[in-house]
Amino acid sequence: MVSDQYISSVAPSPVLYLLFVFFVCVWFLRVYILYRETVKRNKGWIGPRTLIGVETVFSQICRPIPGISLGYDYPWLSKHNDYPSDGCDAYFMVSAFPVGYSSLWLSDAAAIKEIASSRLRFPKPVELYKVLLVFGPNIVASEFDSWKRYRRMVASAFSDRNHEYVWYSASKLGVDLLDNVFKNEKEVVLDDVTEITLPLALYMIAIAGFGREVTFQHDGVVPHGHKMSFKAAIDIIAKDIFLKLLLPKFSFTLHPRLRKLQLAFEEIEEYIKEMIRERQTSTQEEGRSDLLNNLLEANGDSEIKGEKPLTDEELIANVFIFLLGGHEASSQALAFALAALSLYPDEQEALYQQIKQVMPNGELPKYEDIHLLAYSLAVINETLRMYPPVNASPKYCAEDTVITVTHASGSKKLIPVPKNTKIFLHITGVHYNPRYWKDPHVFNPSRFLTDYPREAFIPFSSGSRSCIGRKFFETEAVAILSLIISRYKVSIKEDPRYAHETFEDKKQRIFTANIKLTLTAANQIPLVFTRR
């Protein structure tokens, strides 16, 4: 047995206990003092106060805990609720941890435009995007000279020639969906509309992004030298890409699902390398208009001009970013649009009447006549206003500065902002701001058929760092939405469990969403497509 004398000799003395308690108390006192100083410094602009900041890992993995954490969905759930109705569209969010932390949140369109247009004063905090470097150096996870170089190269790939190619590719893919998946049946019931919107968006990236002919029909052909078909690989990546972003490299050998995902990435990378080699050595690829081909052409032109071309690693990384950013946002936006039209049948009928007028034979007009489908674009825009893929865009102050915001009375107010302060351009806050949008919680596409506050519509962000693929998405979405509505009426699938729910209850159930890679429906969206 261990003697009492031995136990007493190894046990911490009361003095050590007291010292430990003393230092803990001093530390908490310091935290409290710094917290109070932060509140005092931002007096008059204080918004939500929490124990743990919204940017911490804890907040990013937890749901809201009153007084503790606002949770990972805060930018979406808060909408415009935390801004004073009789004040300015700005507030400082203050938290005790990280110590002395505060961030400025803005839903003032003019202030957002100023910040987004001043890249040197308000750079992008690229450290928040390091996870995207898993693909290699790319346009999203870069800033300053590197970003300018990528932007110059990539911008030329998103040309009118590519957008026309997107239009006809989307038309072909939409017809493939209606003829070979729906089979023109009188009624098609989907338990979740993303069953079609996810592959639609994914195959559009494959076709218009890589120039690969992909359809809804099964493609089991595995080319020589490969272990997986191109279509199978992108299907796997689309479902599990978030695992690639979150998990360490060694984990991809631990589970069959992860090994399959790793193989899919390796296969896609090899496919892209093959495409690059083929197009760099072949003279028969001239006239192609997919993004990869355009990017290779721009890369070749840069070398001729004496500029530094992109390496193969940089080419592949930026192509992966198109895949990552494009398919998820596009599929969810189209799913939300179809759900909204189901809940608002009058809006769906108005859309159908214009489509019928423009497409009497059920075929899309030529690309140059895309403007005739104005109501289709209005539906897409209203969907993006209410359900933006990205809910807040982070910046930081590179220097001590002052930001001008507008008070509800119309007067201008100045907010002093210290160097290194994080600023969140609150996209959802702007989109639900009643100063810019009448009845912001109501789905009303017609607001986009007349003059609307363009500076307050920023689903693709704002300024020079706005989404470079905006026109690509709009072209794809207008084509596919118009084709579907031209043939089918869409409604919410009835469920006996919800027989007595009100319109608002149904809206809440269908449009409950979470922030993942982009804003994503939290529940299935069950829809019925009835042949017209």
From TrEMBL:
One of its GO terms (molecular function) is oxidoreductase activity, acting on paired donors, with incorporation or reduction of molecular oxygen. The keyword 4Fe-4S does not apply. It comes from the Eukaryota. Signal peptide: none annotated. InterPro entries: Cyt_P450, Cyt_P450_CS, Cyt_P450_E_grp-I, Cyt_P450_sf, Insect_CytP450_Detox. Its cofactor is heme. Heme binds at C467. Keywords: Heme, Iron, Membrane, Metal-binding, Monooxygenase, Oxidoreductase, Transmembrane, Transmembrane helix. Pathway: Secondary metabolite biosynthesis. The chain crosses the membrane at residues 15-35. Belongs to the cytochrome P450 family. This is Cytochrome P450.
